[in-house]
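agent> Task received from the user: take the single chain below, predict its 3D structure, and emit C-alpha cells. No templates, no multimer pairing.
agent> Plan: (1) validate residues, (2) run structure prediction, (3) serialize to C-alpha cells, (4) report one or two observations.
agent> Step 1 OK, no nonstandard residues flagged.
tool_call: predict_structure(input=
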Amino acid sequence: MTLLIKNLTYTGNGAPRSIGGAGFQSTMAWVHNNSQNMIAFTHAAIQPDQTTHHGETTNIFAGGFTSLNADGVSLGPSVFVNENTFIHYLTLFRGTSIAYGTYTGDGVADRAIAGLGLDPIIVLVVRHTPVAPFYGFVRTTDMPANESIAIGATAITTNDVKSLGVGQFTIGDSVRVNQNGIAYSYWAFASLASQISVGTYVGDDTGNREISVGYRPQLVYIVGKVTATNVSIGGGYRTADQPNEEYMYIDGGVESNFGIQSFGPNGFKLAADSPGDFNLGTRTYYWLALGEPAARGYSIVY
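)
tool_result: status=success, residues=302
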C-alpha cells in the first residue's frame, strides 16, 4: 500500500487557474478556505469539472475542481475552491491506500459496495443531489456496530454506513446513502504504517492534550458525538500548513482557534474546548491522521 499526500496553500482570485507543485498526478483533492465554507472535494471518478462537499450541501457542482493534473489541479471560479482574496488550504492525494468511486442507490438494505481494492478503516459517503439533511456520512473501524456520523449537527441513525469489511463497506437503505436511482460518491482509506491511521478518544476538557498517532501528521480529521444521544457535533480538520491554534470546521464555518492546536512528531495536540468541540468531557471523538513519506517535502505556498 502507498500514499502520496501534498499540502498546498494559495490565495483565491475568483478566476480560472491552475495550482501546481504536487510532484505527482493527484487522484483526489480536498480544499477549505477561511471564509464561511466547508471542505470541497473531488476524485478521478467524478472528473472533469465535478466537485462536491464532505458536509452540508453535498451536491455535485461545476466550476470547482475542473481537472486533476500531472502536478496539481485546475480550478474554476467557485467560492468553495477559489474565493477571491481568501486563503485556501489544499490537500492532494494519490496511492493504493486510497479508494474512491461512485455508485447508484438501489434502496436495498445491507448492500455491499465492493471491489475497493483495500480494506477500509474509514469511509465517507455523500449524495450527489440534495436531500434533507444535507450531510455526508463517515464511519471508522472504531465506531460501534452499524453507526456512522453525519458531518453536521443532526441525529445519528444506524442505517447509513453500517460496516467496513474486506474490500468493501456496507450501507443501509436510508435515502441519505442508498435511495433508488440516486448517485453517490465515496472515499476510503486503508491502514498504512506511519502514514494512515484512525483512532478514538473521550474528551476531558483539559488544555494542551496530546493525542498520539505514532508519526507527524500532515492532516488530521476529527468527528465526534454526544455519547448518550448519538448527536453529531460536526467535525473539524487541520493541515500542517495552517498556523498553530487554527483549524477548520468540516461542515461549514470560519477557521477557529484552540481546537486542533498543533502537530508534533508523534501526533496532534488539543486545547480545552474554547470554542471548538474537540475535547469536551463525556463526548466520544473519532480521528483520521494522514502522514507523508519522510523523503517528500511538506508544503508549498502560492
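agent> Step 4: summary for the user.
The radius of gyration is 18 Å.
agent> Done.
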